[in-house]
Specification:
Blueprint: E1 11-13, E2 16-21, E3 24-30, E4 33-35, E5 38-41, E6 47-50, E7 54-61, H1 62-84, H2 95-111, E8 118-126, E9 131-137, E10 143-145, E11 148-150, H3 154-157, H4 159-165, H5 172-189, E12 196-203, E13 206-209, E14 213-214
Helix pairs in contact: 4-5
Length: about 240
């Protein structure tokens, strides 16, 4: 029997963006899945909370993301089971270790010419360094650890806004507002994006993923840059 390979993504999700703020890390993604150019599902989460310690999100092929999440949960369960075998060990899977694990998995899959068609964001709290962790792994196994990350069109449309507004001392509220502004930009400019989003955060107390909710974009299309009178070709209000 001949082997089959995924040669292109079919059912996909778009950008995942994230940032480190003062006291934690926060990521955001919308809940739209697209089947080619058709909107297939409007309420499919792409952010996952692994053992209340790690946040995982990804853009790209959704079926591959489901397989990645299954691998990650199995790995986390194995770590927990091993730690329970000894009363002297309290070992849980750190976010940075998962990030390195996914680097190896993605590189192995692409080396076999059967890659996972995803760009993955991993976030969590680094207990050893006592600071948040944020990193990405792409379909080739290339990794990046930074204070600001974005996958998909977010790298082109949202990243400039994040770089302009980000500060290392951002509060949690400011971080949420900045991510929501970036998600609005993606909704307006990326035809595969939706205004229905999720936010997730991770601090030293653990990780939380919000329920999906709608961004307030009621006045977005009334912005001056979106309005031009009929026949006003140069935008100055004249003819």
């Amino acid at each position: 029997m001949s082997k089959q390979r995924t040669t292109q993504p079919i059912t996909t999700g778009t950008s995942v963006i994230g940032l480190v703020y003062d006291g934690g890390v926060m990521i955001a993604a919308d809940t739209l899945l697209s089947y080619g150019s058709m909107a297939k599902s409007f309420n499919t989460p792409r952010l996952y909370n692994i053992e209340d310690r790690i946040l995982l999100g990804a853009s790209g092929e959704y079926s591959d993301l489901q397989e990645i999440v299954a691998k990650v949960k199995a790995l986390a369960l194995q770590e927990t089971t091993n730690s329970m075998e000894s009363i002297y060990v309290d070992r849980k899977l750190p976010a940075k270790s998962l990030w390195n694990y996914l680097r190896a998995v993605m590189y192995q899959k692409r080396s076999k010419m059967n890659p996972y068609w995803n760009d993955v964001v991993v976030a969590g709290w680094d207990d050893q360094a006592d600071k948040p962790f944020l990193g990405t792994v792409d379909k080739l196994g290339t990794t990046l650890q930074e204070n600001l990350v974005a996958t998909g069109f977010g790298g082109y449309l949202a990243m400039p806004l994040l770089r302009e507004k980000w500060r290392s001392d951002l509060s949690e509220g400011e971080a949420r507002a900045l991510l929501e502004d970036a998600m609005k930009v993606l909704f307006y400019r990326d035809c595969r994006a939706s205004a229905r989003i999720q936010l997730a955060k991770c601090t030293s107390d653990g990780c939380i993923v919000s329920e999906p909710y709608e961004l307030d974009h009621s006045n977005g299309w009334n912005a001056p840059s979106m309005i031009r009178a009929a026949g006003d070709l140069d935008g100055d209000g004249g003819w």
